[in-house]
Design a protein that fits this description.
mainly beta, Immunoglobulin-like, 3 domains, 5-stranded mixed β-sheet, 0% helix
Length: 304
């Protein structure tokens, strides 16, 4: 290069490195039903890339409303229990680049039939069963039951039932621990119940044992008897957990406040556990059948 000639200045502008994977749209439309969660996701080119999420230009951080997640090259923003206020423009940004999302929150289609209260008060006596029931709009709708926000499944304590559009939760032999808040939920909607367990009024007269031992001789009758507090109380008798009705073997009697079960011509098969029950309360009996009844005949005296 000759003397007095200025060297040519050459400048280079470096292309920014790619932050987001190319195989994704730069803008996405996301639609979510009110009450459900909305997930916005994108892929970065390098797993170590840190991104920042924005809504309508405002920076977002993990909270009770939104959850920021990063797994490998995946970046996600989960908007929980989306409402109308969560609709708008979102972006995932890093290195001066971004991927954008428009979130639209729509009103959900009705899950539950409209002709029912959104919340019900249910009262049951301790020891009895409590049935919580509601109606869904479509027979094929699957629901989930909760107690105090904990998911319930059929067990020895609760029974989940579905018949047509009716959904039921049966709480069996309810106790104080079963009282609380229940809900039947599907697709972000719910029907709520408050269950109150009350102490039962006294069914049986207090001046009697809760359990009695009864002995009968084989071939004779055995009478199990108890007293109810109110003459109009209807009771049910059971043997070894099976309901009894009047028959050629047993006779059920009610006179005033007295309740009796007469086991006729008792045999070994009649021994066992009996109970008289009403209003979730009971009086119990243990029947024991002992050896055969003997008939003693007086000797006949002949006179000449």
């Amino acid at each position: 290069m000759g003397k007095g000639v200025d060297p040519q200045e050459v400048s280079f502008t470096a292309e920014p490195s790619v932050v987001f994977a190319k195989e994704q749209p730069v803008r996405s439309e996301v639609q979510v039903v009110a009450g459900a969660s909305a997930t916005l996701s994108c892929e970065v080119a390098q797993a170590q890339t840190e991104v920042t999420w924005y809504k309508d230009g405002k920076k977002l951080s993990s909270s009770s409303k939104v959850r920021v997640e990063a797994t490998g090259r995946g970046r996600r923003l989960v908007v929980q229990q989306a409402g109308k206020a969560d609709a708008g423009e979102y972006s995932c940004e890093a290195g001066g680049q971004k991927v954008s999302f428009h979130v639209d929150v729509t009103e959900p289609s009705a899950v539950f039939a409209k002709e029912q209260p959104a919340r019900s008060e249910v009262q049951t006596m301790a020891g009895a069963s409590a049935t919580l029931s509601c109606e869904v709009a479509q027979a094929q709708t699957e629901v989930t039951w909760y107690k105090d926000s904990k998911k319930l499944s059929s067990s020895s304590k609760v029974r989940v039932e579905a018949t047509g559009c009716t959904r039921r939760l049966v709480v069996q032999k309810a106790g104080k621990a079963d009282a609380g808040e229940y809900s039947c939920e599907a697709r972000g909607q719910k029907v709520s119940f408050h269950l109150d367990i009350t102490e039962p009024s006294v069914v049986f007269a207090k001046e009697q044992p809760a359990r009695s031992e009864v002995q009968a001789v084989a071939g004779a009758s055995a009478t199990l008897s108890c007293e109810v507090a109110q003459a109009q109380t209807e009771v049910t008798w059971y043997k070894d957990g099976k309901k009894l009705s009047s028959s050629s073997k047993v006779r059920v009697e009610a006179t005033g406040c007295g309740r009796r079960l007469v086991v006729q011509q008792a045999g070994k098969a009649d021994a066992g556990e009996y109970s008289c029950e009403a209003g979730g309360q009971r009086v119990s009996f243990r029947l024991e059948v002992t050896g055969q009844l003997l008939m003693i005949l007086s000797p006949r005296v002949c006179t000449g």
